[in-house]
């Protein structure tokens, strides 16, 4: 039972790290999958395989190496010279995404609760600080609460789609996009999310170490991400093409139910933003601690304050400017990770 509890914790932490604001709102799923019609079902399958395979690969490597941060794994996979630059790019990306997530938290307060943006930022910042001082244990604990709630809303969305007159749209929708764009989408999506998730997956693998726990945790986590992607795609497809006009497509779907369900969904969106913020800041701090020799307790507040300064730019401008750049950078990382053999690189006495 203790081992299976650890498997669930690894699985939930993996899902919570990957499933951020774009996933919870439905915007990512709409942009990377649903608008491509019936073929999205196949590309979601590819995405699920990539998340499962490469997530397990990262955690097992980290456990075998007893990695302090993702830089150790990158140095092993790509060599010290290339690995150093990949880790630096990842560090910059993590800081950028931390700014985006903090800005997203402030936007939820401003747009949905009509509380000033700056107050939302400060409340999110303070909450993150008091949890991050506990380290990895806090990230695991928060995800064990948020991820089941996200899974519940996935089921609600599928149920709502099943009673819609257009319930079968996900099997019949056509698209005018080119095949290259359609089949490249799952690799871009997986690359960006996995490159960011390594900030938590590597320390998690080093902390757990148990091969079976990491294997089953990665397997169930990857499968859960795929299942939630498919559930959201089915729900969004039932409302195509009109659903594309909304900034928060899932909010439109849930809004039809009204009442307390809307408030719960708002809590889920904020929770997903918050867990991604925790994951990114934690991974970034561990990396800076290793690189600069500055204690985690000192560097963590500095990272949060830097993220706060960057979040003044605003949520939409940050997303539109940073995400395309990070996506292209992550593709190079994904290609190197996929084609690099790891068995020959590990010391035989391990």
Automatic annotation (TrEMBL):
InterPro entries found in the cross-reference section: YkvI-like
Alphabetized UniProt keyword annotations: Membrane, Transmembrane, Transmembrane helix
Tree of life domain: Bacteria
Transmembrane regions listed in the UniProt entry: 36-61, 82-103, 115-133, 140-160, 180-201, 213-236, 260-282, 294-315, 321-339
Keyword Membrane: yes
Stated name of the protein: Membrane protein YkvI
């Amino acid at each position: 039972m203790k081992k299976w509890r650890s498997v669930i914790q690894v699985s939930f932490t993996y899902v919570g790290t990957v499933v951020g604001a774009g996933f919870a709102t439905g915007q990512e799923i709409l942009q990377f999958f649903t608008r491509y019609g019936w073929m999205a079902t196949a590309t979601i399958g590819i995405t699920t395989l990539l998340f499962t395979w490469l997530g397990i690969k990262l955690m097992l490597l980290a456990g075998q190496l007893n990695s302090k941060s993702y830089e150790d794994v990158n140095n092993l996979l790509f060599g010290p010279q290339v690995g150093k630059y990949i880790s630096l790019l990842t560090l910059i990306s993590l800081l950028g995404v931390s700014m985006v997530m903090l800005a997203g938290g402030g936007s939820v307060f401003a747009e949905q609760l009509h509380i000033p943006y700056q107050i939302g930022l400060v409340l999110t910042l303070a909450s993150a600080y008091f949890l991050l001082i506990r380290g990895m244990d806090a990230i695991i604990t928060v995800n064990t609460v948020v991820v089941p709630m996200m899974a519940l809303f996935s089921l609600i969305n599928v149920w709502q789609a099943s009673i819609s007159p257009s319930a079968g749209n996900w099997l019949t929708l056509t698209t005018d996009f080119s095949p290259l764009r359609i089949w490249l989408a799952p690799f871009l999506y997986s690359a960006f999310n996995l490159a960011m998730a390594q900030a938590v997956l590597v320390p998690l693998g080093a902390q757990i170490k148990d091969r079976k726990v990491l294997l089953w945790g990665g397997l169930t986590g990857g499968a859960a991400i795929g299942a939630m992607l498919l559930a959201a795609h089915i729900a969004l497809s039932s409302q195509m093409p009109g659903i594309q006009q909304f900034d928060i497509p899932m909010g439109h779907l849930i809004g039809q139910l009204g009442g307390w369900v809307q408030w719960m969904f708002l809590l889920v969106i904020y929770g997903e933003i918050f867990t991604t913020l925790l994951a990114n800041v934690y991974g970034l701090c561990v990396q800076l601690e290793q690189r600069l020799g500055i204690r985690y307790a000192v560097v963590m507040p500095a990272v949060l304050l830097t993220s706060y300064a960057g979040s003044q730019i605003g949520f939409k401008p940050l997303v539109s400017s940073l995400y395309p750049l990070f996506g292209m950078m992550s593709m190079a990382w994904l290609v190197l990770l996929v084609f690099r053999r790891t068995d020959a690189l590990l010391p035989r006495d391990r």
